[in-house]
């Protein structure tokens, strides 16, 4: 039973989540573009949103970047500069700080969604559900920190998780090593993949727009020329437009 559990969630489930994440996002953009937005509730109550949103976004962006670089960078690329143990300690400290900021901000956002009557009335069930899922995922991530600290000497768990992630992205899945991984890490991974599964059906799709702004900033200038009016139009009193 344990082998079947590990094989499904760490060899099959990642590709299910990634497929729905990509194809679902594309389908929503094609079929429901008017729902492609963050649905901000700033007009209803902005003070708590300002603090909560800033803390959450600062923390979550750092965590996403740190997880991506930490898991997908092969050990051979950084072993000459930093040991695995030092890297794990760096991840514990920086992840702990960013995770705490994110936890405070996300708790504020979830609190205002649940306990402000106007915001609760205008919130969809998916808005509250995805915040709750992210909150639980963040708690699981913070829960892994003591276990990581206890294993900082050889960083065996971190190297094993990195190897698993790199095998997933290179289409060489191998769940055999995950049998010895501690349960907080397993739950954190499974719920993290589930967030990608839920992504196209929630307000999280607006994250794609953030990448779109980079392309918008690099677009060429739009040339606007004045339109010359003919003699008939001038006689009729039509003004020159742009």
UniProtKB/TrEMBL annotation:
Catalysed reactions, semicolon-separated: nitrate + a quinol = a quinone + nitrite + H2O
Keywords noted in UniProt: Cell membrane, Electron transport, Heme, Iron, Membrane, Metal-binding, Nitrate assimilation, Oxidoreductase, Transmembrane, Transmembrane helix, Transport
GO molecular function: electron transfer activity; heme binding; metal ion binding; nitrate reductase (quinone) activity
Record EC number: 1.7.5.1
GO CC terms, sorted: nitrate reductase complex; plasma membrane
Binding site for heme b: 57, 67, 188, 206
Transmembrane segments: 12-29, 49-69, 89-110, 130-150, 189-218
Domain of life: Bacteria
SUPFAM superfamilies per record: Respiratory nitrate reductase 1 gamma chain
Membrane topology: Multi-pass membrane protein
Major location (coarse): membrane
GO biological process: anaerobic electron transport chain; nitrate assimilation
Record's subcellular location: Cell membrane
NarG-like domain sequence ranges: 6-227
Protein name: nitrate reductase (quinone)
Gene responsible for this protein: narI
């Amino acid at each position: 039973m344990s082998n079947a559990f590990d094989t499904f969630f760490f060899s099959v489930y990642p590709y299910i989540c990634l497929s729905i994440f990509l194809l679902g996002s594309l389908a929503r953009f094609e079929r429901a573009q008017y729902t492609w937005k963050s649905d901000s509730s700033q007009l209803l109550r902005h003070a708590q949103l300002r603090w909560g949103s800033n803390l959450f976004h600062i923390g979550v962006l750092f965590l996403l970047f740190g997880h991506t670089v930490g898991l997908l960078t092969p050990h051979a690329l950084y072993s000459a500069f930093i040991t695995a143990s030092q890297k794990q300690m760096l991840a514990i400290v920086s992840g702990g700080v960013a995770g705490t900021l994110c936890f405070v901000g996300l708790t504020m956002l979830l609190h205002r969604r649940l306990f402000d009557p106007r915001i609760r009335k205008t919130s969809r069930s998916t808005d509250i559900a995805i915040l709750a899922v992210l909150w639980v995922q963040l708690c699981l991530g913070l829960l892994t920190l003591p276990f990581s600290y206890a294993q900082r000497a050889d960083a065996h768990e971190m190297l094993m998780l990195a190897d698993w992630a790199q095998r997933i992205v290179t289409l060489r899945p191998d769940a055999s090593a995950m049998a010895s991984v501690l349960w907080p890490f397993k739950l954190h991974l499974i719920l993290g993949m589930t967030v990608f599964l839920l992504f196209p059906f929630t307000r999280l799709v607006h994250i794609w727009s953030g990448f779109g702004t980079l392309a918008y900033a690099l677009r060429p200038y739009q040339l606007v020329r004045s339109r010359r009016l003919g003699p008939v139009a001038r006689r009729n009193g039509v003004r020159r437009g742009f």
